[in-house]
Amino acid sequence: MEKTVKPQGVLLVVSGPSGAGKGTICQLLRDKLPDLGYSVSVTTRQPRVGEVDGVNYFFKTVEQVKEMIAADELLEYAEVYGNYYGTPRQYVMDLLNAGKDVLLEIDIQGALQIKQRFPEGVFVFIVPPSLDELSARIYKRGTDSEDVIKRRMASAASELTYAAEYDYIIVNDIVEKAANKILTIMDAERYRVARTYFIIDKICKNKKNADKE
Ligand code: 5GP
After folding, report:
1. Domains delineated in the chain
2. From ligand 1's centre to the CA of 105, what distance in Å?
């Protein structure tokens, strides 16, 4: 990680197998950190009941997403269960450059792409307490067809091994506790030398000015 000369926001990437509860944790994090920037993704999947365009996702056609990919307007994108999902680049970069922290709640393929471009991001992997619990949660959620649930469960065990690519593993047993652990991580990350080195520059500049006076 290079030393920064100006304050830059932290890019917090939260992912994990579907059903691990990352959506609920991320919602709680956003409630607890009102200043946390949140990137609304584009997707080609159909809106679910109650979902609003521009709030939950920007709902797009496959052609529109392909155009965005061709124009390099997505920071990352992935095909998840037959649909495209992607993170609009400009919005995220503007927030980070303005010193704001940004949360991305994305799948594992997307997180690994971001890691290549942004190794300085903070990569958090959410896991369920057990695979039985994961299955119970996906069924309880009731938003997916039997076919999709089967596909999700089949990939969950192998997806867990990607945890090795992340910085932190958080077991989602109790949502509130899991969210608080991420807050602790964010607190510590803000003090990393690579993010705070500008303070040293500032102190030295002040000293030079004082010496001149
Ligand atoms: P859902 O259809 O349930 O809203 O999301 C399906 C999966 O796509 C979830 O794992 C979610 O985190 C992921 N996802 C949502 N937005 C993005 C995105 O912008 N990029 C990637 N790579 N995955 C995303």
Report:
1. 1-36+101-213 (3.40.50.300), 40-99 (3.30.63.10)
2. 7
